[in-house]
Amino acid sequence: MKNYFSKSKDEIFKEFQVTEDGLTTAEAQERIKKYGKNQLNEDEKVSNLVVFLSQFKDFLVIILIIASIISAVSGNIESTIVILTVIVINAILGTIQHIKAEESINSLKNLSSPKTKVLRDGEKRELSSEEIVPGDIIFIEAGDLVPVDGRVIDSFSLLVNESSLTGESEGIEKKSDVIVADNLALGDQKNMIFSGSLVSYGRGVVLVTSTGMNTELGKIAKLLKDTKEKTTPLQVSLDNFGKKLSIGIIVLCGLIFMINLFHGVNVLDSLMFAVALAVAAIPEALSSIVTIVLAIGTQKLSKENAIIKNLKSVEALGCVGVICSDKTGTLTQNKMTVKKVYVNGRVLEENGLDSKRETENLVLKESILCNDATNEVGDPTEIALINLAENYNFNYKELKERYPRISEIPFDSDRKLMSTVHKIDGKIVMFTKGALDSLLPRVNSIMHGNEIREINANDKKEIENINTIFAETGLRVLTYAYKILDSEKEISLEDETGYIFVALIGMIDPPRLESKEAVEKCILAGIKPVMITGDHKVTARTIAKEIGIYRDGDNVLEGIDVEKMSDEELREKVAQTSVYARVSPEHKIRIVTAWQSLGKICAMTGDGVNDAPALKRADIGIAMGITGTEVSKDAASMILADDNFSTIVKAITTGRNIYANIKNSIRFLLSGNTAAILAVIYASFAGLPVIFAPVHLLFINLLTDSLPAIAIGMEPSQGEVLKDKPRDPKEPILTQGLSMRILGEGFLIATCVIIGFYFGFGSMKDALKGSTMAFAVLCLARLFHGFNCRGNSSIFGLGLMSNPFSLIAFGIGFVLLNGVLMLTSLHSIFEVAPLGTNDLILIYVLAFIPTLIIQVLKYTKYRR
Length: 864
Description:
The chain is of the alpha/beta class. Helices cover 50% and strands 17% of the residues.
């Protein structure tokens, strides 16, 4: 962007080839052709059909489709229908999960004011904001939403709130003077206004310098468009797992196919055997179960005021290592509050005043009377002063009515003063408040208790020292003074002298009450909290130190420092830096990216338009639900309904527990599938008939396995998960320890399944009965195994009733299995043989043996 803030009014007019009569209609039309309309570009949206079709790209899905075709060719239509049904259901769930309305750009568009007052053809007109072009002269006033970027050419007490763009909570006094500088942060460009900000006071005349995508708001829109969302650790783990599993299945199925051909089995039967193995190996319901478990976690989080937009973000919360938090409105209350008052030679806390003392009573009166705000609307600084007085039972309306304003001189940035005149107890009193450097030279007396005496050098030195102390602790300081006038009159600038000093008022946007505790919990959980704000360095460090983010020895960097650093230099600095001040949206993205390059899972919180690109770039973008702009909510993957930083800690706890549950669900599914694979491989090498029909394995994987896996996903939190360090995002789901566990448990179950097959196969070589016994033992053993996979402890340590869903899932699976075995009408569909009572008892005993062994081992190891 050109440094328009450093150009004079004449230079700006010359550069944009415009006169003080504004552009002509013809000139405006030409510029629309050149610059385009004052609106933000919109991306083309991917159709729902394309999203749906993309779900079939997964290699596991392709294998299942091939399996269904082979089943159809071999005449096994039932298996084909079941497999294809599973595939379509998973695709529908995936489509629902992945289609998210990309409304960030639309929300940014909505920040444009629909109508704007423009000078065209020498006349003042009201036009649609889309028709504004660079070089136009526009008029803004209190309440207007600024539709463009522009250079202020006239200011009449113009105060603009830019918090959604810069993160700075205080209103910015805008002026038309040239600023001599090479580079300035947006918040320091006092003679510029920016699209998306709000005029909170006064009025101004502005020459438009940028419109549409060329505005600062447009740059954020472009950042949003260019910023790619990070895949979550779970997505990465599942993708890697899927690829490895796919390769393993292909190799294994090919090997079994060749072995069967070697044993003299015909090609079609060999293919069916390979299909049986593929179906046994693929956890068909895994995707659906992970989605359901995440959805259940999402519901739980919503009850805790954390609304999740992207399901997989729930799990990613569990391995967050860094939280980059915006200050204003996130860690702080987004409202100015008086913290210190220097009066009668003493520094008092905001609740330490005594309204019965004359000087302190005068402070409270001046806080209301020399003030343009109401207790709800106005500049945050002035609202804070009214709140101070009302805390001492000074009624805003009553005081205004009793002592009406006789005359005034509004605040402006040149004098840095505001003065009002009132008649109080028969005296004409002129109150003035403003910056110390402007007001102290105009003071010749000081009020101390009931005494008013001449101010001396020591008094001034002490006042200046207190002002410095206040400023160094991040407080914004106002000076109070007054004088008695001889008569009622319209005051002028010449009257602003000969004052009596009353007080210094120090205020700040204070931290949220819960922020300190939340930060402590983050540190306990091994998570580094980082403050990123558009506010001033001293203020940011003060707040960060108060809530525990900043510690002695930490770095505090400003946006200009970040600007000068290369990506490598920033990467070296981020670990030791806990506070960033005066930053732009681009800086926020670079900071988040630097943390990610160090292998950290990074969460970013914020509420403003300026936070949106970084929210989208972060692994977890967290927006404020109450104070947050629509843009930040759209860009985020999680929204805090209560704007409470501590809710993030609850969400992280839930996220860690959900990941543990998902891992246990995967353990349950894969150990059962491993048992089926081992049984099929054994049958192949032993030259036995097909031990399972594909429909057996689909029945287990989709019906009897799904419910226990979901129940495991609903397991309540075990232990204090916040005391653990964040999970390494590079750690695969299948660690070596988990893989060995899955293999061991699968071997136990497979052994009992093969024993069951031999009992059914018997001396009569009854392949159908042998297959039925093997299927029944595998199905029931996996149902029992659901209790083993609830956690590390034995069932006695976990508590049988602590997760009633596991009992319900077992009961439903048990009923379904026995229905298939006992209802003759289902025998042909599920390819099972009739069984006697002794067969059923044997099935129950064999199925229970693996769980008995596993539970004894758990109890021995954990003693619970």
